[in-house]
Amino acid sequence: MSGLPVVVGVDGSSSALAAVAWAARACMHHDAPLRLVHAYTLPTRGYPEVISSARDLRSAMYDQGRMWLSQAVAVARAEAPDVSVEHDLRMEHPTPVLIAESARAREVVVGSHGLGGFTGALVGSTAVALSIHGECPVVVVRWPKERAQQHDGPVVVGVDLSPESDSAIGFAFEEAAASGVPLVAAMAHVDEQSSLLNARMSGWAEKYPDVAVDQLVVGERPIPLLMDLGQRAGLLVVGSRGRGGFAGMLLGSTSQALIYHAPCPVAVVRPA
Q: Any idea where the UspA domain is (predicted)?
């Protein structure tokens, strides 16, 4: 097992543990190591009065972080026993820690909601900062309570006509090939440009001949199109910016809708 690790932000929440399980399977598929990271800062309130000093508080949070990391290691080993697992505990703000980790990671994985050091990782500044400044793909693991986890569903990639979306397409093909699942390439209809989807996909299809590809060009807006396809997907992949049907995906309303409401894990891929 070698290469760049898959990094997971751990905070003790059930959502983070779901992210750990997803990441462990990704490591198994890609023969990559798993790196679990918990980062925390000292709160100004919210801990019991019995903790009377900053030193006591640091000790309590350190012990709590170690416990959460131990739980995450147990989940990872149960999911993928042969995957190499390492962990790191930092007294730093989570956002810069994860951005720094992204410079030497295959991908960074976070849960859709949480507590502790990564509270609100998907609904606030951490997710946005990772999407904009992270140096590798960022995966947000979303599994709504009403839907069972569907690990064998297809990989769905949102395609537009910008060169920047090639990174998302390539990542989607790689994930589909490693997981042994089909790929669905979806484009929201953009006048006559929609006929170019086949040309955009042909080079990647030749590189990954074993991946079954279904191409969809649909005359509707990107949000409902991807939300509908996500109901049956194992992973939804989008670029961090673009034009055409998916313009401004990670900086506008489409990205926010997917982050809050997508019915499956979402991967955000920046241009290479």
A: 6-142, 200-270
